[in-house]
Amino acid sequence: MNEEIPDYAMIPAAEKPARLIPATDDLRSSRLRLTELHRLNVPEMNVEEDLLVPDIRPDLEKIVNIDADPEISGYEAYKGSNGADMIKISGNFDISTLYIPSGSGYELVSITSKIPFRYEVEISEPIGNNAEIEVEMTHLTSKVINERKIRVSAGASFQVKEYGESEIEFLEGVRDESLLLKKEKIRFTDMAQRRTDTIDIHEKIRMKDSQLRPSRILKYDVNVVETHRQIAKGKAVIEANAYYSILYVPETEDKDADAERQGRKAGDSGQAAEMPVFFRGKTEFTQFIRLPDTSAEDAAGSIVSFEVMSSKLVFRDGSSASLEEENDDNEETAGDDTPYLQLDLTVATGIQLYRDIEREIVTDMYHRSRELEFSTTAHRISELCGTGLADISLRDTINIDESKGTIDSVPYISVKPEKVTQTAENDRCTIEGTLNAGVLFTDEQTGEIVCSNEKIPFRTVIDIPGVHPYTSIECVIGLKDIWFDKMNGRQVDFNCGISIRVYAWNVTPYELIDKVCYVEYDEPAEEHASMVVYIANRGDTQWSIAKRFRTTMEALQNINALEADEEIEEGRRLLIV
Questions:
Q1: pTM for the full model?
Q2: CA–CA dist 111, 65 (Å, integer)
Q3: Is residue 419 predicted with pLDDT exceeding 50?
Q4: Residue 189: closest CA among 507, 551, 440
């Protein structure tokens, strides 16, 4: 018996003239078509633009608050002159500005503007023409140039999401029993369907007798948050709330009397400010989306998204003229003469439906008596390993810097999430971020309306089994009810409901066998010993030893009294027959 065995399987093929014969007839395989999601981050864009105050608005003295929402209108992917992959993104920033006009006390005026952009930048890899681009605001600053001009600096980041179909061939088995396979079961997630549908929402926001009637709407925000979803046979039922925040100037017959009643001081011009009124509520709606050839059993998971395509808010005083106007717009009547706000929304609801797939793949192979060569193709397999939901009741005390003034009242707080990060470790996902809160308050000494931008941190942990530091986390954040109240001249009690949905993806690289050939040499094969003793090296497994000596794992186990899953220790002597 020999203890030192030449590794004849490792003789370079170049030293032995050979022919490659495809083993196609001895293999059984199947093809699977998958829908894959590819993500690509685009470098941040920065723009600076001067905005003019419209002629119908008074001269500007001081900016109180400014917000911006970026929107994408289209994109074009192309090759640059140097052969680099390029993308041109078109869109605009919707700017909403509240300001105090010159010489009119502290009355608020609102204007809306658009800053168009065409952003061309080099990207790391090519994309197709059916991709989706998500945009997120990164920063916004402004300053007054003169009484008719505002200079705005804005930034945005982009992420490209491209859905494409790919076909993967899985080697499943062999017809030649001397061709031995090493197999492994893998699980992955495929996007079964992707659908989007729109819904028109018409909400009458009734004004109570105790509420002041609007004369001018300064600004409003709408945020859609999912409350429930159900996947049934052939359809998805998605329930959601549209939360709205409205800031308006109320009607008043006698501004001086109203100012005296509320304890406010007049401005330098002798005119008192009209105290803005904050109104917040929600409207519920249900979206039905058809999902052909789908049952609840087939759905492994789903992701829902919302986009407010258009919105309109007007005040209806309940008069006959108002009813006629509404009848023309919506073909319905108010039913009484109670004043109300009419909110019209068009919301696009999207759903991505996923299915889990399990396959047994071949990771290695050899033949008992013939030389074999095979090639592999790299694939990154994604699995939706879990989802989670957290509802946070955030309560914090907002401290106003002394230099901003002393709080008399707080009519409005605008809130937006920003700088949200997601990390995963040890079966837990951690979501952290801040709320950018623009606090509007009236100064106790001057009656001036002031805005103080404050950062409110939030954090939550969601348990999702199977996540680890390399897990990819998607996060959808929705703002729900907001409450606030003055505590004292320096502090505001702030409350906000935050809905956080998390989707965790594990992405694993695999080398899948795709081409298999027998190798036939012109020279006859060398004779080898029929029985040997092998001394195991570090890292040896039952499979690697059986493959090296072209025996079977069953024979190796029977002769050496090995269990099926027993590990091979370094230095162990094994009999090979």
A1: 0.80
A2: 11
A3: yes
A4: 507
